[in-house]
Amino acid sequence: MNPGNSRIYALNNRRNIFICTIVFFFLSSFLNYAAESSEWTNIERIVVVADIHGNYDNLIRILKGTEIIDENRDWNGGKTHLVQTGDIMDRGPDAREVFDFFMKLEKQAEFAGGKVHILLGNHDVMNLIGIALQTTKYVTPEQFSDFLPENFRNQKEKSLRKRLLKTGKPVELTKNELINYWNEIMPVDEEARAVYYSYFIRKYGNWLLSKNLVIKINDIVFTHGGINEEFSKWKIKNINSRILKEIRAIQSGKRITIKIVYQADAPQWFRGLILNEEDVFSDDVDRILNNLKAKYLVIGHTVRQKNILNSKKLDRFQGRVWGMDTGISEYYGGNISALIIENGIFRVWWSENEEPKNFDKIPFCTNLYHWHVSW
User: Fold this and answer.
1) Among residues 212, 155, 177, which one has the least CA distance to residue 37?
2) Residue 50 lies inside a defined structural domain of this protein
């Protein structure tokens, strides 16, 4: 989808505005989370986890392996700062479970003197502004049903059982039958789609709107997709405040000049730090880091390819850029990893005795603005 057309469609489509009006009503009723700061200094240990895409089990494996949590899944990281680079949502089944877990974990981390940073990814933003369901390949039926109120979900499934009873089919539904049911009605049931958005926003939207798109810890900048030269000239706090302003305007149906949300080179979308040739883009990286007053950039978003995963070399531009999306979700092969930065030393953590795998599931992306892959 062309970025310009996406902007017009999302702002002018009557159905989306109706849904977003409901969303904004719930949003304005649950203003319990304050916007976070954008920069921290003197942090000795940082652990970075990239795109989760609804895979709770692999997230837990990573956090246990990096000693962020204990066997009871409680905070064990002390004063460590945990950075999750965005895209908790879509492609996998467990987004709501991941949200609930992080909401608990961030409170435990604060109490221990640590910090959990959840950054906004493009998929998280797409759900916040109500366009994730415009394509069938992002929101899974499990995610869809998870973000429906229990009473509504039970009512829908009860209606299904009644129809089956009339046809003489078994009333007890298997997990796969329920998944197939939600997969069928998800694209066509306008009521269910509206309820999905309103409930998601009411339960989790305002929490997500307290999160940043870009942060800086010590001399390292973290974001989801990357920072190009234009956005490197912005103050980090201004990037964060601007995207939140745009999201809220879109949710309420207000017109606003879009500078970030739908821009293909914005920090939640940009792929140039991974896809551009290093010898060609090296000077750009110098200028980007200089503008940011940083030495390093750590990002997710673009799944690293077979040869990179096989070599386990995830840094680029002489160690100044680290692309950490190794395909943690089973959708991409379940290649679990994390980046540990301790006293300025970078090292990649891989699961013990586990080599990168399932390369055939990793999509190959060569176009910086190829929207089917980007989204």
Assistant:
1) 212
2) yes
Any domain includes 3: no
Both tokens of 131, joined, read 């366009």
Give tens-digit pLDDT for 284-337: 999 999 999 999 999 999 999 877 777 788 999 999 999 999 999 999 999 999
Pairing outcome for strands 220-223 and 214-217: antiparallel
Q: What is the C-alpha to C-alpha distance for residues 304 and 152, in angstroms, rounded to an integer?
A: 40
Hunting for tokens 């929101």 — which residue is that? 139
Name the E strands within the chain: 39-40, 45-49, 81-84, 115-118, 214-217, 220-223, 296-299, 315-316, 321-323, 337-342, 345-350
Nearest by Cα to 301 from 100, 58, 53: 53
Q: What is the CATH number of the domain that holds 231?
A: 3.60.21.10
Count Cβ atoms below 10 Å from residue 153 Cβ, excluding itself.
Answer: 19
- Structural domain contains residue 347: yes
Q: Could you report the per-residue pLDDT of 92-145, keeping only the tens digit for each?
A: 999 999 999 999 999 999 999 999 999 999 999 999 999 999 876 899 999 999
Domain containing 319 equals 35-139+212-374
The pTM (predicted TM-score) of the whole model is 0.86
Cα–chain-centroid distance for residue 347? Answer: 23
Contact 299, 339 (CB under 8 A): no
Look at the chain and report how many structural domains it folds into.
1
Which amino acid, 173? Answer: L
- Judge whether 175 lies within some domain: no
